[in-house]
Amino acid sequence: MTWHRWDGDDLILHLRIQPKASKDALCGPYGDNEYKITLTAPPVDGKANAHLVRFIAKRFGVPRSNVSLVSGEHSRSKCVRLKSPKQLPIPLGD
């Protein structure tokens, strides 16, 4: 398994989130199955999840409505679906 895959025009990402970091950043692969992202938002009351959706939408050039959290609502390991991303800020290598 890898940290990303295509499902038609949708991109599925397996992410490892570090909340309450000093900056929002796309860090790089985390192990073999996840991609690490740091977020400034705290992991309280869904704030980190909402911040993640905004951050991903902006970086991939899609509206927030095109980003959905598939799994990991209460975990640092998350699966996110992007509908038809317009740009790829992360080299996917495929």
Structure keywords:
single chain; 94 residues; mainly beta; Conserved Hypothetical Protein Mth637, Chain: A
Question: Topology, pairings included?
Answer:
Blueprint: E1 4-7, E2 10-18, E3 25-30, E4 34-38, H1 47-60, E5 67-71, E6 77-83
Parallel strand pairs: 2-4
Antiparallel strand pairs: 1-2, 2-6, 3-4, 5-6
Can you offer a commentary on this structure?
With 94 residues, this protein is mainly beta. It has one domain (4-83): 2-Layer Sandwich (Conserved Hypothetical Protein Mth637, Chain: A), CATH 3.30.1200. The protein has one helix and six strands. The protein has one helix at residues 47-60; strands spanning 4-7, 10-18, 25-30, 34-38, 67-71, 77-83. Strand 3 (25-30) and strand 4 form a beta hairpin. The protein is globular.
Tell me the name of the CATH class.
Alpha Beta
Largest sheet: 6 strands, mixed
Question: Low-confidence segments, ≥5 residues, pLDDT <50?
Answer: none
What name goes with the CATH superfamily?
YggU-like
**Proportion of helical residues:** 10-25%
- Quaternary status of these chains? single chain
- β content, as a range? 35-45%
User: How many separate structural domains?
Assistant: 1
Order of helices and strands: EEEEHEE
Q: What is the number of E strands?
A: 6
Overall form = globular
CATH architecture: 2-Layer Sandwich
Radius of gyration: 12 Å
The residue-averaged pLDDT reads 93
Structural class: mainly beta
Q: According to CATH, what is the topology?
A: Conserved Hypothetical Protein Mth637, Chain: A
The number of helices is 1
How far apart are the termini? 13 Å
